[in-house]
Amino acid sequence: MAAARRRLSVGLGLAGAACAILGLCLLLAGPLIVKEQVVKNVRIDPSSISFRMWKDIPVPFYMSVYFFEVLNPKEVLQGQKPVLNQRGPYVYREFRYKTNITFHDNDTVSFLGYRKLFFQPQLSHGSEEEYIVVPNILMMGAAVMMENLPSFVKLLLSGVLAGLKQEAFMNRTVGEIMWGYDDPLIDAINALVPGLIPFQGKFGLFVDLNSSNSGLFTVNTGMKNISRVHMVDSWNGLKKLNYWRSSECNMINGTAGEMWPPFMSPTSLEFYSPDACRSMTLVYEQSGKFKGVPTYRFVAPKTLFANGTDYPPNEGFCPCMQSGIQNLSTCRLNAPMFISHPHFYNADPSLVNAVKGLHPSKDEHALFLDVHPMTGIPMNCSIKLQLNLYIKQVPGIIQTGKIKPVVLPLLWFAESGFIEGSVLNQFYTNLVLIPSLLDYLQYIFLGLSVPLLISAAVLMAMSQRTTTEKSLCHPTMQSKPSPSSETTPLLHDAGMLSQDDAEA
């Protein structure tokens, strides 16, 4: 029985030691294995898992567009407050892909990013053929741009506008406003003030968005330094912009807005947006999970579109108006265009109160990015921005009537997408499930080693105790010599002596 216990204790001890060694090995080597797999699969390399995602984004993106229809255009011309009605959404399926991918010797890669948009009537609330009353963007924009020109120039423009039957508000289809319409006003303005509107052809708010690139990006591949992967090295050959009034505002920071370096901390992330003509910083809000994948949620801080008075670092983006809007005139042909959050969310209340029909809400109008912190890959996102036009009465241009100065919302859009299907499954298996299993296994092995080693020690102690007890209760025969063993030699010797005497 004691021998069996000894054999069992030795077996348990060996098993416990093996579990402890395996647990310690996983504890020490596990994080290194996981890190190596992450680094291998998130860098911009044709052999990495994320390369196909980066090259031809498989995530189904949708752009939902909401227009603000002006319900009282005649009253606005008389100086009354605009009354707006939100129309939409008009939903477009968005496909993103890259061309001209060129790797360089300095650990960077260049590419042109494209977007193609296709109208989705089944997801939309309305068609592209619907008519909407909006400001005459070309005319009202040109009027504000010409405000400081000599009076006779403005009178000439007013006459041209009358001859072309141009008015402050227009009734056009959704498709025309977005993708362009022919307008003789373009040629007329360029003839009157050469270079004021330096483009030809159709005019539309998104005419340059569909099937056009966002500029030549050069980003780091992460092959030599993974902490720099996806970080922008230059845009259109520029290391910094020349739109703004300060060096800080002209900096090109962060990534191109698609992926970020791995092993993120819950602080902030940056990206450069050609549409906004600037770099943007989002801040950490909370941790969560998206379909089982751990995420950090990043949102826009209230200071993102704050003016220079409320947030001095933004002084370089001025001339500013109220907080909550950003002037794009310096990078948009001097047109009085502004961007903001939808419905002037997080903006100065005076902007909301200047019109009727806006209802800012965090749930509906705040942008967010849910990013997997270990890989820097977005799981779920919704980027929301609003386009606004500054309109007012311009003396000498009678078509502007008595319009009071107002930043008038034109439309807002949300670009949304999330990882799903086979892409999500592959991502979850390789970059979430396997690392988690390695993490759990190390603690399982360490946890098993403790009871196994304790059991082995207990059994060994029990077997030793049993052996000791037996030796005390049953002493061996050889421990005490018998009496005969003490006298026999003496008798034997005496007998030998008597026999010798007799012979003598």
Topology:
Blueprint: H1 2-42, H2 49-55, E1 61-70, H3 73-77, E2 84-103, E3 108-119, E4 131-135, H4 137-145, H5 151-163, E5 169-173, H6 174-179, H7 185-192, E6 213-220, E7 232-235, E8 268-273, E9 278-290, E10 293-299, E11 325-327, E12 337-340, H8 349-353, H9 362-365, E13 368-372, E14 377-391, E15 406-418, H10 421-473, H11 484-503
Antiparallel strand pairs: 1-2, 1-15, 2-3, 3-6, 4-5, 6-7, 8-9, 9-10, 10-13, 11-12, 12-14, 13-14, 14-15
Helix pairs in contact: 1-10, 5-7
Into which percentage range does the β-strand content fall?
25-35%
Class of secondary structure makeup: alpha+beta
Name the shape in a single word.
elongated
Q: What percent of the residues sit in helical stretches (DSSP H or I)?
A: 25-40%
Main sheet overview: 13 strands, antiparallel
Series of secondary-structure elements, N-terminal to C-terminal: HHEHEEEHHEHHEEEEEEEHHEEEHH
> Could you give the distance between the termini?
65 Å
- The averaged pLDDT comes out at 86
Low-confidence stretches: 484-504
Kindly report the oligomeric state of this protein: single chain
